[in-house]
Every structure is written in C-alpha cells, then in structure tokens.
Design brief:
Strand content: over 45%
Order of helices and strands: EEEEEEEEEEE
Mean pLDDT: 97
Radius of gyration: 15 Å
C-alpha cells in the first residue's frame, strides 16, 4: 500500500559528494520519522541519520558534520546530502519511514523500507 523509492547513489572519489533522495508514495496519511541506514558487505545494517516530521535530526557519530538529512513533507521525500565522502562510507543505503496509512475503515501503520541504493567511494 506504500512504498519508498531511493535514488542518487553511484560511484564517487574520496572527498566527493552525493545526494540521495527517497520518495514515499501510496495511501499515506502521515509520516513520522524518516531515516537513512546503510549496510556494508559483511556488516550489519546501521543507522546513518533520522529526521522527524518536525525537523529534529539525529546522526551517527561517523557521519556527523559530513552528512545532512532533510525532508520535504509536502512531497513525502527525505534527502541525504553526503559530503567529504570516505571509502568507509561505501555501502547500500536504505531509506526507512514510519508511515500512517489510509485504510478503508481507518488508519494503519507501516514501518517501510526502500530497496536500497549503492554508494561506492573510491580511494
């Protein structure tokens, strides 16, 4: 009933920048927290950054000062601006959102994940 679609990944040299986007679509009533997570080969998925509907943000220590999360509530879209990229930032980046969905007779809840977008930083 709802889906998240990421875009903006790719290959970049160390020190470069990328901007990821994630758009939510479907029977959306409201979205609370949106966030980005990443998973490198052989490692567990980890939090990168989150943002509430009111704009409060939270970052992993490893990206603080280099990455900026933002959102456009009118477009149900979250962004991740990544600057000063390092090879250790290489991972599949996943979008996540806590979505209240419209049902025929009320509201439901969906903890929704995107399919991921690959970010590769070369040294």
């Amino acid at each position: 009933q709802v889906q998240l679609v990421e875009s903006g990944g790719g290959l970049v040299q160390s020190g470069g920048s990328l901007r990821l986007s994630c758009a939510a679509s479907g029977s959306i009533f409201s979205i609370n927290v949106m966030g980005w997570y990443r998973q490198a080969p052989g490692k567990q998925r980890e939090l990168v950054a989150t943002i509430t509907s009111g704009g409060s943000t939270n970052y992993a220590g490893s990206v603080k000062g280099r990455f900026t999360i933002s959102r456009d509530n009118a477009k149900n879209t979250v962004y991740l601006q990544m600057n000063s990229l390092k090879p250790e930032d290489t991972a599949v980046y996943y979008c996540n959102a806590d979505i209240h969905i419209r049902l025929e007779y009320g509201l439901g809840y969906s903890d929704t994940w995107g399919r991921g977008t690959q970010v590769t930083v070369s040294s």
